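Notebook p. 47: complex prediction with adenosine-5'-triphosphate.
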Amino acid sequence: MIIAIDGPAASGKGTIARKLAAHYGLRHLDTGMLYRAVAARLIAAGASLDDPAARLEAARGLAMENLADEAQLRGPGMGEAASIVAADPAVRAAMLDFQRNFARTPPGAVLDGRDIATVVCPDADAKLFVTAAAETRARRRFKEIIAAGGDVSYEQVLADIRRRDARDTARAVAPLRKADDAHLLDTTDLDIEAAFRAAVDLIGGSTAAK
Ligand SMILES: Nc1ncnc2c1ncn2[C@@H]1O[C@H](COP(=O)(O)OP(=O)(O)OP(=O)(O)O)[C@@H](O)[C@H]1O
Ligand SMILES: Nc1ccn([C@@H]2O[C@H](COP(=O)(O)O)[C@@H](O)[C@H]2O)c(=O)n1
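Predicted complex, C-alpha coordinates below:
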Protein backbone atom coordinates (compact mmCIF):
# COMPACT_ATOMS: atom_id res chain seq x y z
CA MET A 1 0.00 0.00 0.00
CA ILE A 2 1.20 3.52 -0.82
CA ILE A 3 -0.18 6.49 1.10
CA ALA A 4 0.56 9.96 -0.30
CA ILE A 5 0.37 12.96 2.03
CA ASP A 6 0.86 16.56 0.99
CA GLY A 7 0.37 19.85 2.74
CA PRO A 8 1.94 23.19 3.64
CA ALA A 9 4.74 23.75 6.16
CA ALA A 10 4.07 22.58 9.73
CA SER A 11 0.57 21.36 8.90
CA GLY A 12 1.21 18.14 10.83
CA LYS A 13 1.63 15.91 7.78
CA GLY A 14 4.86 14.37 9.10
CA THR A 15 3.28 13.58 12.46
CA ILE A 16 0.32 11.91 10.77
CA ALA A 17 2.57 10.13 8.25
CA ARG A 18 4.73 8.60 11.00
CA LYS A 19 1.68 7.41 12.94
CA LEU A 20 0.06 5.96 9.80
CA ALA A 21 3.28 4.12 8.90
CA ALA A 22 3.36 2.51 12.35
CA HIS A 23 -0.38 1.73 12.20
CA TYR A 24 -0.27 0.03 8.78
CA GLY A 25 3.24 -1.48 9.08
CA LEU A 26 4.60 0.65 6.22
CA ARG A 27 7.89 2.51 5.75
CA HIS A 28 7.94 6.29 5.97
CA LEU A 29 9.75 8.90 3.92
CA ASP A 30 9.71 12.59 4.85
CA THR A 31 10.54 13.93 1.38
CA GLY A 32 11.18 17.44 2.69
CA MET A 33 14.40 16.05 4.16
CA LEU A 34 15.70 15.37 0.64
CA TYR A 35 15.40 19.04 -0.33
CA ARG A 36 16.77 20.14 3.03
CA ALA A 37 19.79 17.85 2.47
CA VAL A 38 20.43 19.24 -1.02
CA ALA A 39 20.41 22.75 0.46
CA ALA A 40 22.73 21.63 3.28
CA ARG A 41 25.20 20.18 0.75
CA LEU A 42 25.26 23.47 -1.14
CA ILE A 43 25.82 25.47 2.04
CA ALA A 44 28.57 23.09 3.19
CA ALA A 45 30.30 23.47 -0.19
CA GLY A 46 30.14 27.27 0.09
CA ALA A 47 28.01 27.41 -3.07
CA SER A 48 25.10 29.75 -3.71
CA LEU A 49 21.56 28.40 -3.43
CA ASP A 50 20.94 30.30 -6.67
CA ASP A 51 23.67 28.52 -8.69
CA PRO A 52 21.90 26.03 -11.01
CA ALA A 53 25.03 23.94 -11.76
CA ALA A 54 25.93 23.65 -8.08
CA ARG A 55 22.32 22.77 -7.22
CA LEU A 56 22.28 19.95 -9.74
CA GLU A 57 25.63 18.60 -8.53
CA ALA A 58 24.38 18.67 -4.92
CA ALA A 59 21.15 16.91 -5.89
CA ARG A 60 22.78 14.23 -8.03
CA GLY A 61 25.41 13.50 -5.38
CA LEU A 62 22.90 13.14 -2.55
CA ALA A 63 23.52 10.03 -0.41
CA MET A 64 21.64 8.47 2.52
CA GLU A 65 24.33 9.70 4.91
CA ASN A 66 23.37 13.29 3.97
CA LEU A 67 19.99 12.68 5.65
CA ALA A 68 21.42 11.45 8.96
CA ASP A 69 21.72 14.73 10.88
CA GLU A 70 18.05 15.57 11.36
CA ALA A 71 18.75 18.32 13.90
CA GLN A 72 20.99 20.13 11.43
CA LEU A 73 18.55 19.71 8.52
CA ARG A 74 15.73 21.06 10.67
CA GLY A 75 17.86 23.93 11.97
CA PRO A 76 17.33 27.68 11.45
CA GLY A 77 16.96 28.74 7.84
CA MET A 78 16.98 25.22 6.41
CA GLY A 79 13.28 25.14 5.50
CA GLU A 80 13.69 28.39 3.60
CA ALA A 81 16.87 27.15 1.88
CA ALA A 82 15.14 23.89 0.95
CA SER A 83 12.22 25.71 -0.62
CA ILE A 84 14.63 27.76 -2.79
CA VAL A 85 16.41 24.69 -4.21
CA ALA A 86 13.10 22.78 -4.48
CA ALA A 87 11.81 25.28 -7.05
CA ASP A 88 14.50 24.06 -9.50
CA PRO A 89 13.01 21.48 -11.95
CA ALA A 90 16.40 19.77 -12.37
CA VAL A 91 16.72 19.24 -8.61
CA ARG A 92 13.18 17.82 -8.46
CA ALA A 93 13.87 15.48 -11.37
CA ALA A 94 16.97 14.17 -9.60
CA MET A 95 14.85 13.26 -6.53
CA LEU A 96 12.13 11.41 -8.40
CA ASP A 97 13.51 7.88 -8.90
CA PHE A 98 14.61 7.58 -5.27
CA GLN A 99 11.15 8.56 -3.99
CA ARG A 100 9.31 6.25 -6.39
CA ASN A 101 11.59 3.29 -5.63
CA PHE A 102 11.12 3.91 -1.92
CA ALA A 103 7.32 3.98 -2.33
CA ARG A 104 7.19 0.78 -4.42
CA THR A 105 9.48 -1.32 -2.22
CA PRO A 106 7.39 -3.88 -0.29
CA PRO A 107 5.42 -3.60 1.90
CA GLY A 108 4.83 -0.05 0.65
CA ALA A 109 5.18 3.31 2.28
CA VAL A 110 3.77 6.56 3.52
CA LEU A 111 5.43 9.54 1.82
CA ASP A 112 4.82 13.12 2.89
CA GLY A 113 5.75 16.30 1.05
CA ARG A 114 4.32 18.79 -1.43
CA ASP A 115 3.94 16.85 -4.69
CA ILE A 116 3.51 13.24 -3.60
CA ALA A 117 -0.08 12.74 -4.75
CA THR A 118 0.29 14.94 -7.83
CA VAL A 119 3.71 13.93 -9.21
CA VAL A 120 5.66 11.31 -7.26
CA CYS A 121 2.90 8.75 -6.63
CA PRO A 122 -0.17 9.73 -8.67
CA ASP A 123 -1.42 6.12 -8.38
CA ALA A 124 -1.19 5.98 -4.56
CA ASP A 125 -3.85 3.87 -2.83
CA ALA A 126 -4.83 6.78 -0.58
CA LYS A 127 -4.13 10.50 -0.79
CA LEU A 128 -4.45 13.11 1.94
CA PHE A 129 -3.97 16.86 1.81
CA VAL A 130 -3.25 17.92 5.38
CA THR A 131 -3.59 21.58 6.23
CA ALA A 132 -4.31 24.02 9.09
CA ALA A 133 -4.58 27.78 9.48
CA ALA A 134 -1.19 29.50 9.09
CA GLU A 135 -1.42 30.97 12.62
CA THR A 136 -2.12 27.53 14.09
CA ARG A 137 0.80 26.01 12.21
CA ALA A 138 3.08 28.82 13.35
CA ARG A 139 1.99 28.38 16.98
CA ARG A 140 2.73 24.64 16.86
CA ARG A 141 6.11 25.11 15.16
CA PHE A 142 7.05 27.95 17.56
CA LYS A 143 6.25 25.70 20.54
CA GLU A 144 8.34 22.90 19.03
CA ILE A 145 11.38 25.15 18.43
CA ILE A 146 11.24 26.71 21.90
CA ALA A 147 10.90 23.26 23.54
CA ALA A 148 14.04 22.18 21.67
CA GLY A 149 15.96 25.18 23.06
CA GLY A 150 15.72 27.36 19.94
CA ASP A 151 15.56 31.15 19.99
CA VAL A 152 12.91 32.57 17.67
CA SER A 153 9.77 34.70 17.87
CA TYR A 154 6.27 33.59 16.91
CA GLU A 155 6.21 36.40 14.32
CA GLN A 156 9.41 35.08 12.67
CA VAL A 157 7.97 31.57 12.48
CA LEU A 158 4.72 32.84 10.97
CA ALA A 159 6.63 34.92 8.40
CA ASP A 160 8.78 31.90 7.43
CA ILE A 161 5.69 29.73 7.02
CA ARG A 162 3.92 32.33 4.87
CA ARG A 163 7.00 32.90 2.69
CA ARG A 164 7.47 29.17 2.12
CA ASP A 165 3.78 28.57 1.44
CA ALA A 166 3.85 31.33 -1.17
CA ARG A 167 7.00 30.04 -2.89
CA ASP A 168 5.90 26.38 -2.79
CA THR A 169 2.46 27.22 -4.19
CA ALA A 170 3.60 29.63 -6.89
CA ARG A 171 6.51 27.71 -8.39
CA ALA A 172 6.15 26.52 -11.98
CA VAL A 173 7.09 22.89 -11.40
CA ALA A 174 5.26 20.54 -9.01
CA PRO A 175 3.61 23.35 -7.03
CA LEU A 176 1.98 22.60 -3.70
CA ARG A 177 -1.66 21.86 -4.42
CA LYS A 178 -4.31 19.35 -3.41
CA ALA A 179 -4.65 16.51 -5.93
CA ASP A 180 -8.19 16.33 -7.29
CA ASP A 181 -8.63 12.87 -5.77
CA ALA A 182 -7.03 13.66 -2.39
CA HIS A 183 -9.03 13.93 0.83
CA LEU A 184 -8.77 17.29 2.58
CA LEU A 185 -7.85 17.00 6.27
CA ASP A 186 -7.89 20.33 8.13
CA THR A 187 -6.29 19.85 11.56
CA THR A 188 -6.81 23.42 12.82
CA ASP A 189 -9.26 22.26 15.47
CA LEU A 190 -7.95 18.70 15.92
CA ASP A 191 -5.33 17.46 18.34
CA ILE A 192 -2.77 14.92 17.12
CA GLU A 193 -4.81 11.85 18.09
CA ALA A 194 -8.02 13.23 16.51
CA ALA A 195 -6.13 14.12 13.32
CA PHE A 196 -4.63 10.62 13.14
CA ARG A 197 -8.05 8.99 13.66
CA ALA A 198 -9.56 11.17 10.93
CA ALA A 199 -6.73 10.12 8.60
CA VAL A 200 -7.33 6.43 9.31
CA ASP A 201 -11.05 6.88 8.60
CA LEU A 202 -10.36 8.64 5.29
CA ILE A 203 -7.82 6.00 4.23
CA GLY A 204 -10.24 3.22 5.18
CA GLY A 205 -12.78 4.79 2.84
CA SER A 206 -10.24 5.15 0.00
CA THR A 207 -8.88 1.63 0.14
CA ALA A 208 -12.31 0.03 0.57
CA ALA A 209 -13.40 1.75 -2.64
CA LYS A 210 -10.53 0.17 -4.68
N1 LIG B 1 -3.06 18.16 15.29
C1 LIG B 1 -2.04 18.72 15.96
N2 LIG B 1 -2.26 19.39 17.10
C2 LIG B 1 -1.25 19.98 17.77
N3 LIG B 1 0.04 19.92 17.39
C3 LIG B 1 0.33 19.27 16.27
C4 LIG B 1 -0.69 18.63 15.50
N4 LIG B 1 -0.10 18.04 14.44
C5 LIG B 1 1.22 18.31 14.53
N5 LIG B 1 1.49 19.03 15.63
C6 LIG B 1 2.78 19.58 16.03
O1 LIG B 1 3.05 20.63 15.10
C7 LIG B 1 4.43 20.64 14.73
C8 LIG B 1 4.53 20.47 13.21
O2 LIG B 1 4.10 19.16 12.88
P1 LIG B 1 4.85 18.31 11.77
O3 LIG B 1 6.33 18.39 11.95
O4 LIG B 1 4.23 16.99 11.73
O5 LIG B 1 4.45 19.16 10.47
P2 LIG B 1 4.94 18.97 8.98
O6 LIG B 1 3.81 19.36 8.12
O7 LIG B 1 5.51 17.61 8.77
O8 LIG B 1 6.10 20.07 8.94
P3 LIG B 1 7.22 20.33 7.82
O9 LIG B 1 6.53 20.86 6.61
O10 LIG B 1 8.11 21.38 8.40
O11 LIG B 1 7.95 19.04 7.57
C9 LIG B 1 5.08 19.52 15.55
O12 LIG B 1 5.62 20.09 16.70
C10 LIG B 1 3.93 18.59 15.89
O13 LIG B 1 4.13 17.88 17.09
N1 LIG C 1 7.83 16.77 -1.76
C1 LIG C 1 8.39 17.93 -1.36
C2 LIG C 1 8.84 18.10 -0.05
C3 LIG C 1 9.43 19.29 0.30
N2 LIG C 1 9.58 20.26 -0.63
C4 LIG C 1 10.27 21.50 -0.32
O1 LIG C 1 11.14 21.39 0.79
C5 LIG C 1 10.85 22.38 1.77
C6 LIG C 1 11.05 21.78 3.14
O2 LIG C 1 10.07 20.77 3.31
P1 LIG C 1 9.50 20.36 4.77
O3 LIG C 1 8.36 19.44 4.47
O4 LIG C 1 10.62 19.68 5.48
O5 LIG C 1 9.06 21.61 5.43
C7 LIG C 1 9.42 22.82 1.47
O6 LIG C 1 9.14 24.17 1.87
C8 LIG C 1 9.33 22.66 -0.04
O7 LIG C 1 9.82 23.78 -0.72
C9 LIG C 1 9.10 20.07 -1.89
O8 LIG C 1 9.19 20.98 -2.75
N3 LIG C 1 8.52 18.91 -2.25
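Notes: Residues 7, 9-15, 32, 79, 140-141, 144, 187, 190-192, 195 surround adenosine-5'-triphosphate (ligand 1) (CB under 6 Å). The two ends are 12 Å apart (CA to CA).
Next step: compare against the earlier run before touching the bench.
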